[in-house]
């Protein structure tokens, strides 16, 4: 019983579980069927697939359920058909009735359609035409619209071409920029715009090349026109300096005017009341026409254009570097002088014009453009140029031997410096260079005046100046400061002591001072500095040039004693005129000679040295003349007896000396510092001549080539010496005391007396005593002459009779010779 209950419970459980499972399947199948009914046919597949994915045999149950659902729907359809069948039958019946009417209506419609087609055929054609017109109109409107977009592009491109053809490159670049940024993007879809866009970079490169070519042409042109630009700038600077000088004079007189410069380069003058002054109505216009600026002479548009072009193209730095590099090259070319520049002033002027023109252009570029060149660049360029200019001028000025050319060079340097200083360039080194040029100028002046002095000396007749009338006397004294009360008291005609060269030399010294003064003009130096420069250059003229010319003149062979005497007279008067030269310089510079550090003229020492040289030359020429007469001596050294009269050459020599010393009476002998000069010169010359004559006669006796001398020759020689003593005692030149002049022949006199008297015992006994009769006779001299007489005695037997009659005397001679040799040996030891 219990087993059955358990079995029944299990069965019940299974049945319940089966029913539950069946219920779940039914519910699931209902859901699937609802999905199939409500879902689109394309989405049924996934639903059906889910049936087969379930438990086995599930599809069978679904099919059963599906069949049941179909049967159910069929029953519902059948019910509905049955419900509407009678209405359907009625509708079919009515439809059949309508069929006939519809056919009739169809015929009418067909006929109406045919008639309508026939009637609307024209309208259709016209409509098609209207449609075509509408399409064309729409296309035209579209085309116009597109053309309106394209036409500005084409116009701008055409404008670009015109600008390129007219070389308006900067405007062309601006047009390109507008095309690229504004116009082409609007119609970039068109092929022609793409071609335009592709051409624009090429056009930019062409513009760069063309503008660079224009710049090169400009650089070549400016190199050629720098000369004209510099010439104009320097002329304006010179006019400005002249104007300033006039202003200074007006300020001196109480009228002041001030220059006013406009940017155009024009100059006006305003007086204190502010009104513009004109000499006449047309002066201002004429001045405006004459004043030219760099812009008037040079077309700078290529530089501006090229700068703007490269700036627009973003390549300004390349352009600046190229321009500066090329200008540096041109600067080096400008600074390179011509080989023969120093020969003419035009060479220097052209050189300075080019330099000034170059830097005037650079200054204009500096101020007219922003950053193309900088002040640092121009200063660097100027410093380089300044060093080169100074080196060139130093070299070429050293070749100049014309003072006028050096003066022109100085003026050009000053104008160049003033011009460039007006443009802001430092020019102190140029003014420092002027000191070197001044030295060169002084050197050329000295060389020129050396020629002038030589010509004056060569043309001088070295004789006192004859004056026939009062006018001639005044003419001479107007050229030379000569004042002599004694000569002024004399009647005409009369003679002035100096020769014609003296007033000429004095005049030329003044001309030299004037020439030196010319260099000091426009140097902005004080009167004291100018005075110092004039005195120093005048001192150089006196102490070097004139002194050298005088020394050379004195040494010339054709200058005789008379000329030398006149030169002494001339130098004395020139020396006295030095104080007037001092006054002359003082009057020019208005600097008092008492001013501290004032340089004095050294003319006194110059003329003293020249006079001493002339005096020495007088002594030398006198001695040379004496030597010439001595060379005419023709003694017969072996003669037995003398002729009883002096030799002819000696008498001629004495007569020459007398006439010569008479010339010395013309030497100046006035009451000044040189009062005793004439006497001293004459006495010195006379004493020198007598000493030289005595020495020459002594050398003649002691000549080593002379081997034998006879007693007759000694006697003849004694006669000649006596004539010399008579000349000395005749006082050929006044002022000698006692027998001072005769002492020149004392050596000869004592030697000849020793041999004529044959007083050897006295000589030997008193030798070395201060009061010896033959104190001036040297043992060596006596020995040499005695041996020559001894050799003559042996060869010619002159003393043969004497030796027979008096052999003791012969032994005495030999004894004297031995004793003289002993004295000579004692002196040498």
Automatic annotation (TrEMBL):
GO terms for biological process: Golgi to plasma membrane transport; intracellular protein transport; vesicle tethering involved in exocytosis. Residues 65-234 form the Exocyst complex component EXOC6/Sec15 N-terminal domain. Gene3D superfamilies: Dsl1p vesicle tethering complex, Tip20p subunit, domain D (1.20.58.670), Exocyst complex subunit Sec15 C-terminal domain, N-terminal subdomain (1.10.357.30). GO terms for cellular component: exocyst; plasma membrane. The keyword Transport applies. Keywords: Exocytosis, Transport. Pfam families: EXOC6_Sec15_N (PF20651), Sec15_C (PF04091). It comes from the Eukaryota. Residues 430-788 form the Exocyst complex subunit EXOC6/Sec15 C-terminal domain. Component of the exocyst complex involved in the docking of exocytic vesicles with fusion sites on the plasma membrane. Belongs to the SEC15 family. This is Exocyst complex component. It comes from Poecilia reticulata (Guppy).
